[in-house]
Amino acid sequence: MDIEVHDSQLRVLPHHQYVTTDGLSPSTVSPSPLDQFRSWFQDVASSKTVSEPEAMSLSTVSPTGIPSARMVLFKELDTRGFVFFTNYTSRKSQELLANPHAALVFYWREVHQSVRVVGRVERVSEDESREYFHSRPLGSQFGAWASRQSSVVGEGEVQARLEKLKQKFREDVPLPEFWGGWRVVPDEVEFWIGKPSRLHDRVRYLRVEGFPDKAPQWKIERLAP
After folding, report:
1. I want to staple 200 with a disulfide (CB 3.0 to 4.6 A). Which of 36, 83, 146, 225 is the partner?
2. Are 184 and 81 in contact (CB under 8 A)?
3. Helices 157-169 and 138-146 sit at what angle, rounded to 10 degrees?
4. What amino acid positions are annotated as catalytic residues?
5. How far is CA 34 from its chain centroid?
């Protein structure tokens, strides 16, 4: 990528062209967006071409309508949706409690693929959170306790708290009551493949109203680039 800098202005010069052999069409994708995502994710994860394919952008909205976005790690796809874990007192969690809707974006630059998800959110069960929490490295378990995520802290404050927690819990770290998982239950999922001249392939799934979450039906459409 080339850039041009002049005084206080920074400009990104024309981007390279996408070159992909794969195509995308409503007639070739799976009837379920979760199955389609599972197929794509397994491919990029097993190829070792994409660095950190589980990284995704999570967008939330405050009670006053101010959006915010940050990168989080996707951890599980179940029969309902996309699961990630975080501190329940963080800004993202507080915004999800106030407005239980979110958007996700996966971007796999190396293979010119992207997935966009919009949906409702729900907390996962405490048992699910506990199972995942205890699968994490011990240091990450201590870290969840030590960090009052998104709060303002002084220099050395988190590290001092961490040392006290290590003495308190040793190697038996319980699940914090303020930490756990969220699930994004999709109402809209878009799959994107980059193509030359910006004529990208885009296929969108929209949930059809009137069907239960256990047996969703989807409207599948091609979108203009």
Report:
1. 225
2. yes
3. 120
4. 198
5. 14
